[in-house]
Structure formats: structure tokens, C-alpha cells
Amino acid sequence: MNHPIEIYDLHKTFANGVIALESVNLEIEEGEIFALLGPNGAGKTTLIKIICGLSTVSSGNISVMGLDIDRHYKEVRKLIGLVPQELHTDMFETVWDTVCFTRGLFGLPKNDRLVQVLLRELSLWEKRGEIMANLSGGMKRRVLIAKALAHEPKILFLDEPTAGVDVELRQDMWGLIRSYKKRGVTTILTTHFIDEAEELSDRVGIINKGKLVLVEDKKSLVSKLGKKQMILKLSSPISYLPEIFNEFKIEIKNSGEILEYTMPDTDQGERVSKLIKMLETQEIHFKNIETIQSSLEDIFVRLVSKK
Amino acid sequence: MVKQINFVGILTIYKSEWSRFRRTFWQSLITPIVTTMLFLLVFGNAIGERVGGINGVSYAAFIIPGLIMLTVLNESLSNSSFGIYMPKFTGTIYEILSAPLSPIEIVIGYVGSAASKSILLGLLIFFTSTFFIDLPIAHPIPMVLLLVIVSCTFSMIGFTIGVIAKSFDHLQFVPLLIITPLTFLGGAFYSMDMLPAVWKTITLFNPIVYVISAFRWSFLGTATVNLNASLMVIFLMFFVVLSLIIIIFKTGYRIKT
User: Fold this and answer.
1) Over 70: is that where the pLDDT of A225 sits?
2) CA triplet A133, A134, A138: central angle to 5 degrees?
3) What's the pLDDT at A266?
4) Predicted pLDDT of residue A268
5) How far is CA B45 from CA B9, B58, B62, in A?
6) Which residues in A109-129 are b (16+ Cβ under 10 Å) and which e?
7) DSSP-derived secondary structure letter, A132
8) How far apart are CA A93 and CA A99, in angstroms?
9) pLDDT (tens digit, 9 = 90+) per residue, B162-219?
10) Cβ neighbours of A46 in B, within 8 Å
């Protein structure tokens, strides 16, 4: 079974000598939502542009559903829908016409029913007769999504789908992306909003300075690299802990006012209650408990700043 | 694997370019016709009466082929250069490039539509002028064929300009500073035979001379430059420009990053 997208040893150097991508290897799984995370200028958009035919490859191989993107570009492009980052639209075209236009470019016959369903799903039906120039930014973004879906692609690229989008639309957009996942559409989205990746994706790829630093299942990434900690603020400071606490990984901080316990991944809560009971029997009282779990954001910052 | 030609895609580009044309109907259709009629009125009638006949026809009838070409060349250039420059400028070209369209198919869509407009315009100017003057037409079918190939060639040149252009100024540069002077000096308003020998030789390096000469032959039945030479130049231009466009798309020059 071919992966929807396979990238081998991809290099991209721009005409001005800037290296945009360096030995990128990546396999996208069927039906997943893959979030490509990285700071501005990391190479996210370049990667998407190359796969979609907007940018050329310097070296390396990319195949989509087992088809080479250069040799079989027609078949490949029929499988892909692209929502670009910038709101590029023909200002004087109506919403309806511009969506039909895209479908036509892909060589497909008119399908009013499909376009109607798309426009309704994206709450654009009322605006179908408006010209693009009259639409708000959020509406334009929706139109671009409708355009990208007009030829019923199997793979959807969303380049920063929620950049400059208000909170409400953002939620809508997320709902929409999830609904396409349910229909079996493989989605690759780029974002520099970590919460977006955390919220939506199955897997995360972190790209920095043209290199794919890490590709990992989101959950395992958070549990593997994320730290779960319990912070106990003590009623009265202590200078040491009795030996029986050695089985726990505890540090004494703030001159004995705070105990910081780092939980093992395996802990489902039993260890925590055991620790609390032991503290009570040892008459070490605390006035406050706080648990913290490092988010994708912490992991991201750690990884990106390390490189 | 046999690549299927994306006819629907070509037609989609073609039609969308026509709808752009419709939106600017007055500007793109009526303006050139009015301008040409003004030329005809001033040069043909007012001045022409004093000039008298050239090659056995009235001066007005003599300049009509040149006037049609002047408009057709400029409109071909500006329509097609604008047609491809706008998507580049607004960024909507991403759609065309990420669609299953080959470079040739894209060119056929854009150039085909720009050329059709020019052909339509050429014919309209022709028919409009028959209301004003007595216009002989010796070879009607070659006349239309010449109109077609010249429109296609110059639409392709325009397309190339649109691809290379970095600003709106660049779009105007070639039509205004190269093509218009070459057309004026290409015998649109005078017969080459009127020139001194030296200038006549220099003029032969101007490709537009051959275009106008051949086109005038289709009207008047006589040509100032050898007809075969004209046809050769016209076909040569067509193929040179076609190859240039294919190369541009193959390398992605100024289109892909």
C-alpha cells in the first residue's frame, strides 16, 4: 500500500542561494491529519509548494499515492487540493463562478449539486452571487477552501488555515477539517499555532531552518517529551525528606517551601495518592497542590531553541 | 502512460478570459474600433485626398490593412500580457500551476482567448471600415488565416512579456516602445516603394514590414515585399515564440520559485 505522500531526501535551494529545505524525509499516513509546525521561514510553505507544483525540487524524490510528482503531475494534482496561505482571489469574480472555475481547471464537468453542498457547508451559500472583492477576509478564506475541495481531492493541503482568522471562524475551520478527516481525506496543515496542532493533528512534524527536526505521533510526543509534575507548597519549610521518599523523584525547592515531584509516564494516579498519604503520615503538611504538564508548545520551544 | 489532454481545463481558462473581456467590453472592443476609425478619418479622408491613390487604390483603402494590423498587434500583446500578468500579480496563478494542466494547455487557454479577441477585433474593424470606404478584398481566406496566425504569434509574445514582466510598466514597455514604432515604420501608412533605397533596405530588418505587406496583399492582391519571404518570416516568428514559451514553462522561469 502506497503512502499518500512519500518524500525522500528532499533538498531545495532557491535561485538566490538560500537553502529552504535540507534532506527532508517524510511519509504521510492515509487519512491522518498531519501538522507541520515551525517558526516563520522554516520551510513549511516551500514544502507544500513543491508538492503542489508551485515550486521546483532541487534534488530528492516525492511521490503521491505512489506516483512521482513530476512524471505523473496530472494524476498527482487531481488528487490534491491546496488552500494557500495568502488570500489570492480574482476580485471581480463571483463566489459561485470562482468555485466552478477551479473545478473546470481540474478537467471536471460542471456539478452544480456538489458546488451547492460545498457552499452550504462553508456557510457561503448566501454569498454565492457576491463578487470576491466584497467579501471579508474570513469569507475569502472559506471560498479558497471551497475551491480546494471543488475537485474532490483525496489529499488536502492547508497552509496556515487560521492565520488572521477570528476565534469563531477558527473553531468552524477546525470542525470542518475534522469532518473531512472523517470522510477519509488526508490533511496536511502548516501552522505556527501550537494549540492548533495539538487540537487537530494525529501526528506532528517539527520543521526548523529547513530541517525536519522531528516527526512523532502527537500523543506519544507529549508523553515522551512532555513532563508531568506535581508542585506541593508546604505549610512549613523542611530541610530534608525522610528516606522512605527515595522511591519518588522529588526535589526540594525555594528553601524547603516547595516539593516538586516529577511523575513517571506510567503513573495513572496511584503513585500520587500514595505520596500524599505518606506525606500525611510523616506529618508534612501542604497548603496547595498544583499539577503541570508541558504542552506541545514547551516541547516545540525546547526543540527549536536547541537546534 | 498516455497523458490525457485536459480539454475542460483549457476551455475553462479560455472562457474565464472571455468573461474578463466582457467585463471590460467598452475598453477592449469599442475603444480600438473608435481609434482606428479616427485614424481612417484623419489620414484616409482628410490627408488621403491630397496624397491621392497608391498602387491603384485610394489612400484610405491602402492604409486599412495596416490600421487593422496596428490594432491587432497591440491588442494581442496587451490582452495576453495582461491576462497572465494579473494572476501573477494577484497570486491566483497558484491555481493554474497546481491544476492538472500542462504548460502547452495553459498557453493554449490564455493565448487562444487573447488571439480570438484580436481576430474578432480585426474583423470588426474591417467590417466597420467597409461602411466608410470602398475596400477591395482580393484573397479573403488567406486574409483570415493571416489574421489568425499573426494574432496567435503576437498573443504569444504578449504572454511571454506578461510572464517576464515584474511590474505594470514592463507590460506597457514592449507594445508602446517597440511594437507601435515598428508598426508605424513597417509601412502601415506608406508604401515601401516611396522610401529611398537605403531606408528600404533598413526597413527589411523590421519583421512587422512582412506582416503588413502580406496582410495588404490579401486585400489588394499586390505586395511590396516578396510574399513568400513574408510568409516565411511570419511562420518563423510563430515557431520562435512558441519555442520560447515552452522553454519558459519547462524551466519555470519567473513563474515558479
Assistant:
1) no
2) 90
3) 66
4) 63
5) 47, 9, 12
6) eeeeebbeebbebbebeebbe
7) G
8) 10
9) 988 888 888 888 888 888 888 888 888 888 777 888 888 888 889 999 999 999 999 9
10) 257
Q: Which fold has domain A5-223?
A: Rossmann fold (3.40.50)
Q: How many angstroms away from the CA of B9 is the closest CA of chain A?
A: 4
pLDDT at residue number B2: 45
End-to-end CA distance of chain A: 35
Q: In what order do the strands lie in the sheet with A258-263?
A: A250-253, A258-263, A228-234, A286-293
ipTM score of complex: 0.83
3-class secondary-structure state, position A186? strand
CB contact under 8 A, B12 and A77: no
The string of pLDDT tens digits covering residues A143-197 is 999 999 999 999 999 998 877 777 777 888 888 889 999 999 999 998 877 778 8
CATH topology of A5-223 equal to that of A226-294?
Answer: no
| pLDDT tens digits, one per residue of B9-61 | 999 999 998 888 888 777 778 888 888 888 888 877 777 777 777 777 888 88
Torsion angle of C-alpha atoms B125, B126, B132, B136, degrees rounded to 10: 160
Considering chain A, what percentage of its residues have pLDDT values greater than 70? 94
CATH class of A226-294: alpha beta
Enumerate residues 45 to 104 of chain B having a beta carbon within 8 A of any beta carbon in chain A: 87, 90-92, 94-102
Q: How far is B243 from chain A (nearest CA, A)?
A: 21
For chain A, which residues make up each domain, given as ranges? Answer: 5-223, 226-294
pTM for the model stands at 0.82
With beta carbons under 8 A apart, name residues in chain B contacting A15. 257
Binding-site residues on chain A for chain B (CB distance < 8 A): 14-15, 46, 49, 52-56, 72-75, 77-78, 80, 82, 84, 86, 88-93, 97, 101-102, 104-109, 147
Q: Do B95 and A89 touch (CB under 8 A)?
A: no
Pairing of strands A228-234, A80-83: unpaired
User: So what's the pLDDT on residue B256?
Assistant: 66
State which H helix or E strand residue A21 sits in.
strand A19-28
Using one digit for the tens of pLDDT, what is the confidence trace for B106-115?
Answer: 989 999 999 9
Q: Where are the beta strands (DSSP E) in chain B?
A: none
- Residues A307/A208, Cβ–Cβ less than 8 Å: yes
DSSP secondary-structure letter at A125?
A: G
Name the packing angle between helices B7-23 and B59-90 (round to 10°): 110
Determine the Cα–Cα distance for residues B69 and B148; give it in Å rounded to an integer: 11
Nearest chain A residue to B105 by CA: give it: A105
Whether B2 has its CB under 8 Å from any CB of chain A: the answer is no
